[in-house]
Amino acid sequence: MGGSSVRAVGWARSLPMTSTAKEARDWARAHLDSLGWGQEASETVDAVLLSVSELVTNAHVHAHSSAQLVLTWDTSCLHVAVHDGSTQLPVARPPDNERLGGRGMFLVDALADTWQVRPCADGKLVMACFQPPAEALESEPAEG
Question: What percentage of the chain has pLDDT greater than the value 70?
Answer without folding.
Answer: 81
